[in-house]
């Protein structure tokens, strides 16, 4: 075992043990599913930190660095476009809670569109949570060995079990508490990385960073506009985000979501600087890994630890949200036993794709397209609409998602060139069709 791998195992084992010991133990369902403690619900900064670190996935910062390598600063800003999701979700959830007194997304959907709509929606978010498990643990595996090797698989299995151990202890309480610790670690580690690439041993400057990349559709703007468009539906199929929208007081929640939108995007852009540095040095491959290797084992360990931190945060949030989906939202039994066993189930099921050669970036881009049908459902949540409107819009979005998966979208409707052009225009035309179908039943009734 190399020194690097030895120290990486040490980081995973020690950090997991510390988080397990520090995590609160949930004695009742209010603590387990709603993160309620004696001191009350999370305040603005705790909730904001939890939101940011839960969404700074291992795959997200890997993608941000790689997009910085590919497109310069335009790539980093393009990927940060997804963080508009926080502002959109924060504002709409605030309105739902204050004006209509809804207590969850499922409460809203049941009231307006009925149980069948809830079943379809729950299927979408279950797929989302399923994707989150494998797409993040695969990043961890890549730091321990080549895909398909024994070290690769063992690291994924052990990392998943260690994360499961501390979150199963306290559910949402554990998830949010450890998020605060992980956010502090992330900030510290990111600062160390930036000081390294802008340090005295390099000629890399902020001016080099800002001037990198070309502002054109072909070199990043396709992805930027696709990300912003998806932000009007993407957050609502992610219970890791929406569950946190109903925990604290409405005004606290709104402030947290708006702050997370700005700071989360900033974190992603800053992490893309690693890729921009790699581009300036002519490095090829996985940007974060190659930059770490260029600076030596200490920097590589810091980069790897930031991946471990972000992956653990997303994974524990995924487990806690899935348990709430099963036990509370779908009303299959609001007990600690159901909550904990559902975590075990999603951990097992979500690990299977690791052995099936899945692609990391596809977990974001494809699932984001498949839920564009939620756009009119939530943007026009206050308006009257028959139950069929939900189904027409959501199913239309799923069909456009399948067109992206199987690359069957007509080229004549793709109006720009370059990478992610198909992603952009499938989303543009898809949302137009979904919105049209959403309103058709109301127009017919008139």
Automatic annotation (TrEMBL):
Pfam family, any one: SSF
Cellular compartment(s): Membrane
Segments passing through the bilayer: 6-25, 45-65, 71-93, 113-131, 151-168, 180-199, 219-236, 257-278, 294-315, 336-356, 362-381, 388-406, 426-444
GO CC annotations on file: membrane
Keyword field: Membrane, Transmembrane, Transmembrane helix
GO MF terms, alphabetically ordered: transmembrane transporter activity
Membrane topology: Multi-pass membrane protein
Transmembrane found in the keyword field: yes
UniProt xrefs under Gene3D superfamilies: Sodium/glucose cotransporter
Oxidoreductase found in the keyword field: no
InterPro entries documented for this protein: Na/Glc_symporter_sf, Na/solute_symporter
Main localization (coarse): membrane
Family per record: Belongs to the sodium:solute symporter (SSF) (TC 2.A.21) family.
Name this polypeptide is given: Sodium:solute symporter
Species for this entry: Maribacter aurantiacus
